[in-house]
Amino acid sequence: MSTPVLEVRNLKRDYVTSGGLFRPAKVLHAVKGVNFTLEKGKTLAVVGESGCGKSTLARMITLIDQPTSGEILIDGLPASAAHVTKQMRQKVQIVFQNPYGSLNPRQKIGEVLAEPLLLNTDMSNDERRHRAMQMLIKVGLGPEHFNRYPHMFSGGQRQRIAIARALMLNPSFLVLDEPVSALDLSVQAQILNLLKDLQDEFGLTYVFISHDLSVVRYIADEVMVMYFGDVVEHGTRDAVFADPQHDYTKTLFAATPRADVNSIRARIAAKKAAA
Amino acid sequence: MPLLEIKNLTVSFDTSAGLFKAVDGIDVSVEAREVLAIVGESGSGKSVAMLAVMGLLPPTATVTADKMEFEGRDLLNMAPAEKRKIIGKDIAMIFQEPVASLNPCFTVGFQIEEVLSRHMGLRGRAARDRAIELLQLVGIKDGAERLGAFPHQMSGGQCQRVMIAMALACSPKLLIADEPTTALDVTIQKQILDLLVKLQADTGMGLIMITHDMGVVAETADRVIVQYKGHKMEEADVLTLFENPSSKYTRALLSALPDNAVGDRLPTVSDFNFADEVGAGR
């Protein structure tokens, strides 16, 4: 059996809110023991409402935050956020939710893309430039965008830049923290297509964090549902969507707006009957 | 007579690169007891058109229209003092980001009571009681305690409920909801949409729902206007729009829904050519 790209064992994270003079400190268990493995080339979707710990999980597996306890193995090697080696940093990258906040407004796009190479490899300046230019074209932008600043781009283009930056180091897996929730429907489709194309081309592994089930159904191989720090459901996409087991998953499905003609008909009929 | 009737509305902004038309010749009319959805991408002018009705645009904006009437009263040539009596009272608006639209320096109670004292002349005890009643109406059960809370002490969904309570404070005849659920989770989104639709049915007000989410449209609207780059692309009742859209742009939007994905790729709006339609819509 091949080594999974990512293996997580009993991962926990507590946040301690400091109490006041007369108030005791409070402990919030944001992630309460998560286990999973992820094979190469697959997409794992993590679903849940805000505050359920999905972003905390993302930060831990990207080696930004240190877990309170538990183990993370990347390509079979133990990883720790306390000491991230250059080799480890090249294996995992993240794309953040808000493309307006995740790019430095004073940095040109070319520099944004070349910076990961500057920090983590000893490539020459020319080579870095060359790679950045190639990646820019790969994500659907042009060479003319190389010397522009982030404010000159739309939300969808910025998200393309953020994805390009994450891919500069050829990571083993990519954490996508709600990459399309800040985007319009039509732009969302373009970004989802881009992610699929890149996955096919580079054999990428994704951890895709989202609260939008229609997007998850489109992109995921496996689905993990989180609720108040616990994993309440984990299975293949088809299994979870066909037969949700946990009550929370069912609530989530019921809350997702339906855009098919039959449900609109039903709604209008119900409204007529009530009037 | 329609509640709100707008004919040939144009809004242009004076920018350094010249005049920019955000809204170009749009007609909107809403009846009482009707839910109208205005759909479009960012930059399609859907919010700007409604902000023009409310008179909330900055001075760089030029608003022209052949007709802009609320219950038969001309909004265009009305004295500002007169207009302020209607705006916020008979026409109310809910904004996109609930946490950003509330004033962080004042308690929720103060902000709701401010509306009540300005438009309804309610003061002190009466205002407080009405505010608690409003919070209960929007599903905040411990209203009396919540009046003393500041916006940062509440979640996004709770803040949106407070915004809705403020908008409903004077029992408006027309409620404009500008992307009321965009910043919220699906489960909270469902609660807020159900609440809006229920309140609309109970009070019989007109509701204009501005959104880019086709799911929200399908769940709430009676009639839909699709906007693109300041032009109206299509106007239809909700069933016709989903079943048999006449505009190419609407078809493109609908096929970009991940629910409707056929095969491995999502068709994107740019795969369709509807540039000719934008011209024809003028």
UniProtKB/TrEMBL annotation, chain A:
Segments forming domain ABC transporter: 6-253
GO MF annotation terms: ATP binding; ATP hydrolysis activity
SMART domains in UniProt: AAA
Keyword Mitochondrion attributed: no
Membrane topology, from the record: Peripheral membrane protein
Subcellular location per the Swiss-Prot or TrEMBL entry: Cell inner membrane
Family classification: Belongs to the ABC transporter superfamily.
Protein name: Dipeptide ABC transporter ATP-binding protein
UniProtKB/TrEMBL annotation, chain B:
Entry-linked InterPro entries: AAA+_ATPase, ABC_Ni/Peptide_Import, ABC_transporter-like_ATP-bd, ABC_transporter-like_CS, P-loop_NTPase
Subcellular location, record wording: Cell inner membrane
Residue span(s) of domain ABC transporter: 4-254
SUPFAM superfamilies reported in the protein's UniProt record: P-loop containing nucleoside triphosphate hydrolases (SSF52540)
Matches recorded under SMART domains: AAA
UniProt keyword terms in alphabetical order: ATP-binding, Cell membrane, Membrane, Nucleotide-binding, Transport
Membrane disposition: Peripheral membrane protein
Keyword Transport: yes
One Gene Ontology cellular component: plasma membrane
GO molecular function, a single term: ATP hydrolysis activity
Pfam family, one: ABC_tran
GO biological process: transmembrane transport
Family: Belongs to the ABC transporter superfamily.
Name assigned to this protein: ABC transporter ATP-binding protein
